Amino acid sequence: MSDGRPVDDQDGSAATVVVRRNPAEHRFEVWVDGEWAGMTEYQVAGRQLLALTHTKIEPRFGGQGLASALISATLNELRTEQISVLPFCPFVKAFIEKHLDYLDLVPADSRSRFGLPAAADPS
Q: Of the four, 27, 28, 33, 119, which is 20 to 30 A from 19 by CA?
């Protein structure tokens, strides 16, 4: 899903981060230098619709921006596959609120349910 990209590790060295889908476990995973670092879980909520329910980053990988990288890569892949999302996970919802260019992935008739705006501000 995502080619490795270097990020600064906690000791200042570059680490390779890869995000990939694990359909058997119903989640997207983030790996750092080949080590599992976290995931965002999903449930199939309908045709071309996933409910993103929970995001977790292992404590030792915290503070490196991995949750944001994971959610960004996840949403980008789902957009490519023309799959909509229901952001039940509070982190995913907050990410979409902060990055309204992903708002179109939430069905318009579901946005108010999550406290999201009906449309992104065009300014």
A: 119
**98 pLDDT higher than 60:** yes
Cα–Cα distances (Å) from 94 to 8, 17, 31, 102, 103, in that order, read 24, 22, 22, 11, 11
Closest alpha carbon to 7 in 72, 54, 77? 72
From CA 15, how far away is CA 74, in angstroms rounded? 20
CB burial class (10 A; 0-12, 13-18, 19+) of residue 50?
buried
pTM greater than 0.70: yes
9-29: pLDDT as tens digits: 455 567 899 999 999 999 999
Q: Which amino acid is at 93?
A: K
